[in-house]
Amino acid sequence: MSAPEILHENGVTIVELGKSYQRLGEDRISEVSKVLMEASQAEPPLVLIDLSQTEFFSSSFIEVLFRVWNRIQPREGGRFALCGLTPYCAEVLQVTNLDKLWEIYETRDAALQALPSHAA
User: Fold this and answer.
1) 20 to 30 A Cα–Cα from 75, which one of 13, 47, 60, 69?
2) Percent of the chain as helix, strand, coil, to the nearest 5
3) CB distance 3 to 30 below 8 Å
4) What is the chain's pLDDT, residue by residue, as a tens digit (120 residues)?
5) What span, in angstroms and rounded, lies between the C-alpha atoms of 37 and 89?
């Protein structure tokens, strides 16, 4: 299985989980956490996580997302966003009210248009 891919586009660091991360259970958290923590150190602190291939994630993944957001959010110009949520994943974030805390975009293109326009 391939590791999550880190891409850079228009000043935004994109973490693309890909098809091998269709189900993000406890068995995958360690490797995903490592990549996301690395991405959270990006300059500028604009991080987008593309979940378009992820159909399920565990509560441990939500904890990892929260830790990443906590690292990015206080930094000057820090922005953390998710895109491409499948219906199940979107519902989980709605039920937990995290959709009100985090920026969520339907597509990667929509996120890339919005993120740099608000950078400090």
Assistant:
1) 60
2) 45, 20, 30
3) no
4) 577 999 999 899 999 998 999 999 899 999 999 999 999 999 999 999 999 999 999 999 999 999 999 999 999 999 999 999 999 999 999 999 999 999 999 999 999 999 976 544
5) 21
Bridge partners of residue 48, in order along the sequence: 14, 81
Statement: the pTM of the whole predicted model exceeds 0.85: yes
| Residue 106, C-beta contacts closer than 8 angstroms, at least 6 positions apart | 83, 84
Query: Which has the closest alpha carbon to 51: 79, 91, 24, 11?
Result: 24
CB–CB of 82/103 below 8 Å?
yes
